[in-house]
Design brief:
Blueprint (H helix, E strand, L loop, with lengths): L10 H17 L18 E2 L5 E7 L2 H6 L8 H10 L8 E6 L11 H18 L3 E5 L1 H10 L5 E2 L16 E5 L2 H6 L3 H27 L1
Parallel strand pairs: 2-3, 2-4, 4-6, 5-6
Antiparallel strand pairs: 1-3
Helix pairs in contact: 1-4, 3-7, 4-5
């Protein structure tokens, strides 16, 4: 789907598009050995289809195959903490991955897997149309900045962007993957990480609140 393709801006239209896309993801066999039930299964993006923020990770974790929700437990605990600190519930934001399947033994995604899966993520983001995309890890950052070459990109610590942002593209906050943060075994770093993500999420929702007052 081209980024120039108009999408009807109604909840029902977005749901219809997402249901069809979820089915495509479930049936996808583009990559050898991937999307095998219980082994390398896929899960689509999860959450609110009108969320002003989308969080994009690297690939699906093993636990997420069961729940069908990206960032379930494990490193997802830091994501959950950030969402809670922002005063929200997980279902109120949108969360997906650069690769929707679970790579065997949690290995890094192959380049062809990232390329093959990127159209699914692109279409998800076209449906949601977030004002902010938080990339979690290098693979996610590469894919999202490829989608939006005009987007302004910032790195931690999160700061509210100054000046006019490019129209029609989200602001990109490129953060570390939460699993990397956890591997540092540094409580202060984890606290800083969670606080930064929460600040970014709150900012995206504040934009929506400001628009509603106009």
């Amino acid at each position: 789907m081209s980024s120039n393709t108009p999408i009807s801006d109604t909840d029902a239209a977005r749901r219809r598009l997402k249901i069809a896309l979820d089915d495509e993801i479930a049936r996808c066999r583009r990559c050898d050995g991937m999307n095998i039930p219980g082994v390398t299964a896929s899960a689509p993006g999860y959450g609110c289809l009108a969320s002003p923020v989308a969080l994009v990770g690297q690939s699906l974790c093993e636990k997420c195959m069961q729940t069908q929700i990206p960032f379930t437990e494990g490193s997802g605990d830091l994501i959950d903490e950030a969402i809670t600190l922002a005063g929200l519930e997980k279902r109120e934001v949108f969360i997906s991955n650069a690769v929707h399947c679970h790579p065997p033994k949690n290995r890094p995604s192959h380049e062809r897997e990232i390329v093959n899966c990127s159209p699914f993520l692109h279409r998800e983001l076209e449906i949601v149309r977030p004002r902010l995309v938080i990339t979690l890890g290098r693979d996610a950052e590469r894919v999202v900045t490829f989608f939006y070459p005009r987007a302004r990109v910032s790195v931690p610590p999160f700061e509210v962007p100054r000046g006019r942002l490019p129209k029609g593209v989200p602001y990109v906050f490129a953060a570390k993957h939460p699993s990397w943060i956890q591997r540092q075994h540094d409580d202060a770093l984890e606290t800083e990480y969670v606080s930064g993500l929460a600040a970014a999420i709150r900012w995206s929702f504040s934009l929506t609140a400001e628009d509603e007052k106009r």
